[in-house]
Amino acid sequence: MHLDELNALDEASAARALLACCGSTGWAREMAASRPFHGPETMAHTSDRVWASLARSDWLEAFAAHPKIGARTASAWASAEQAGSAGASEEVRQRLAAGNRAYEARFGYIFIVCATGRSAGDMLAILERRLTNDPDEELRIAAEEQCKITRLRLAKLLT
Fold it and tell me: What pLDDT is attached to residue 89?
């Protein structure tokens, strides 16, 4: 999709297209209402501003739209983003699965990390380190990771 095509969509269609970039319906609606975007950077900055303005429930909705790190998914974007976990050893896959369960039990939502360019070992180390965070700090970190993922997906949407 080209930026001019996104800008030309009706608001509901634009929100549906943007939902592929971030699973928060509030974010998608706000982004659709913020059009027209004058360029990809304007769109990215608007995304950051909208994301920062959202409530915790909106963030959690976006997190829930992701597959768990190391899990199989039908989403081409998520599969490509997590490509580093594809060749992981059985031990690393098991530790990722256990870490995902521990993370979700501790924080109440799935582990979110911008996985693009990271190996399974890298993601495992990040997961294990972040398990020690206090809940408020971890929510902030997860939200920052979601923001990075969203920016990458906005660029993919426009190519």
Answer: 85
| Helix H or strand E segment including 129 | helix 120-130
Q: Among this protein's residues, is 66 annotated catalytic? A: yes
From the list 2, 38, 45, 66, the catalytic residue is 66
Alpha-carbon distance of 87 to 85, in angstroms, equals 6
The structure's pTM equals 0.88
Report residue 67's pLDDT band, with 50, 70 and 90 as the boundaries.
Answer: confident
What does the alpha-carbon distance between residue 68 and residue 66 come to, in Å, rounded to a whole number?
6
The pLDDT value given to residue 84: 55
| Alpha-helical runs (H) found in 34-89 | 40-53, 56-64, 76-81
CATH topology of domain 3-157: UraD-like (1.10.3330)
Which distant-in-sequence residues (6+ apart) come within 8 Å of 85 by Cβ?
A: 69, 70, 93, 96, 115, 119, 120, 123
